[in-house]
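2024-03-11 09:14:02 INFO worker-7 job=invfold-0412 stage=load source=structure_tokens
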């Protein structure tokens, strides 16, 4: 049985992501470190999500597909963690509450299994977010 589950999301830097950034943000190492969502095993069971399978994560501001992993961090049930980067940025609201800084922590997301959907690479994701599904910049006049 598969379900959609709503969790609070935090984005943050991870050691693996920091090391991978040194190889470049378009590298496989960075993709593997930043296109994942850390979830507690109990939440994965509730939603019918198997470890290391793709999930759709949707906030009020966007939707992405990433790989779900059992957390190695101190993520408790009800909380999920996504490393900062293009995948996390696609979910974060641009609204800053007059602080000049978006809210990267503690906002609700829906997570559901998406085993057959593809996790986009960083450049493909950014192009899609900027230009839509055709991923082409508008023609210049």
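2024-03-11 09:14:09 INFO worker-7 stage=emit residues=141
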């Amino acid at each position: 049985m598969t379900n959609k589950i709503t969790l609070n999301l935090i984005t943050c830097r991870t050691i693996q992501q920091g090391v991978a950034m040194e190889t470049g943000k378009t590298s496989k190492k960075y993709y593997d470190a930043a296109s994942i969502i850390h979830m507690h095993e109990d939440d994965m069971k509730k939603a019918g999500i198997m470890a290391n399978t793709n999930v759709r994560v949707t906030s009020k501001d966007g939707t992405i597909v990433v790989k779900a992993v059992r957390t190695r961090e101190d993520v408790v049930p009800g909380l999920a963690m996504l490393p900062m980067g293009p995948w996390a940025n696609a979910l974060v609201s641009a609204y800053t509450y007059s602080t000049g800084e978006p809210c990267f922590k503690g906002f609700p997301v829906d997570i559901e299994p998406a085993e057959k959907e593809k996790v986009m690479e960083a450049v493909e994701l950014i192009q899609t977010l900027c230009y839509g599904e055709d991923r082409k910049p508008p023609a210049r006049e």
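2024-03-11 09:14:09 INFO worker-7 stage=report msg="The longest helix spans residues 122-131."
2024-03-11 09:14:10 INFO worker-7 job finished
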